[in-house]
Specification:
Strand content: 15-25%
Helix content: 40-55%
Shape: elongated
Order of helices and strands: EEHEHEHHEEEEHEEEHHHHEEEEHHHHH
Largest sheet: 5 strands, mixed
CATH topology of the largest domain: Aminoglycoside 3'-phosphotransferase, Chain: A, domain 2
Oligomer: single chain
Distance between the termini: 66 Å
Number of strands: 15
CATH class of the largest domain: Alpha Beta
Strand order of the largest sheet: 1-2-3-4-5
CATH architecture of the largest domain: Alpha-Beta Complex
Radius of gyration: 26 Å
CATH superfamily of the largest domain: Aminoglycoside phosphotransferase (APH), C-terminal lobe
Structural class: alpha+beta
Number of helices: 14
Length: about 400
Amino acid sequence: MKFQKENNEYTIFLEGRIDSNNSPEVEKEILDIGFSSEDDLVLDAENLEYISSAGLRVILRLKKSNKSTKIINACSDVYEIFDMTGFTEMMDISKAYRKMDVSGCEVIGEGANGLVYRIDADTIIKVYKNPDSLDEIHNERELARKAFVMGIPTAIPYDVVRVGDLYGSVFELLDAQSFGKLLVADNSLEKQLAKESTEILKAMHATQLSPGELPDKKAEAVIWANFTKEYLSPEAGDKLLAMMQDIPETHNMLHGDYHIKNIMKQNGENLLIDMDTLSMGHPIFEFAAMFLAYLGFSCVDHENVLHFLGISYEVAHDFWRDTLHFYFPDKDDSYLDQIELQAGIIGYTRMLRRIIRKVGLDTDLKKQEFEYCKQYIEENVHKVTSLYF
């Protein structure tokens, strides 16, 4: 029987059929490998076609002697046997993931954690950038289901696949196009798409959650401020942190990465994708993230938004301002300016921390962006009395 050993983990490759005719020989071959009860045991079932009750008893004895025993790459038929007999409740068993190729496919969306490709007229796939993303994928699926049940128009993934060394979530979105693609094709749609985008945004923010139901965005933002204050003057840093801590603890649902590439139009219906950043908190945190997507990340190089969203800085600015107008229809421009200032301060606090921790100051552009964020916060933190509306 084929196997491989790495440190104290043995991976054993099961093949063909395991039934009453050969189960004693299979069990003997496995035990003859020579692992101990302290070793980790992985049974790779990629080439296992069938397993009977006699084979299941072999697996059960292995599990009893090696508590860590798990099964990977089970095909659908074999996985169903494990599931029906209750084995999936007793031990870690994972399905084999079908393989898909995105070579030459059109990129129709992008989020913080992955790229969205159109495979065909019916199907899109979000490929995660992190090769160890299975937990993220299952978490996003649960978050999407939660949002859908609460009435948010959300596309729910129906399959998990392998794409090279990465994983992807598959969605059925017939002839769907992102708002970004629609806007690139026709700039005259800007106001209408901003209005439709804002309608979903307001519906999401009107959804109230229970404490602890989703990650708390304020707790995350306070971490940003604590980090960033070390790079500001003492007065500005202290005021920034105090105002961030003063933002009310609300339970509004937030998308967390809301922009035109994450809103899809399908047969006249608008659907959200990229739900892995779903959280809760005051809507100002949503506006801070949107401010960065449309304006903030392009603070030094205005071409950034063209590369990211496919639209010019001017169109992005109009879309951002129109979003504010539709969200606050009874407010004047001075009120919207105040919201933008609050969103900018929070957004650049996050961006400054991100530059230092994740990107670095190795290029002139990043140094300029760092200085811009720092100067923006220093100059504007004293112009507001709070960071919320």
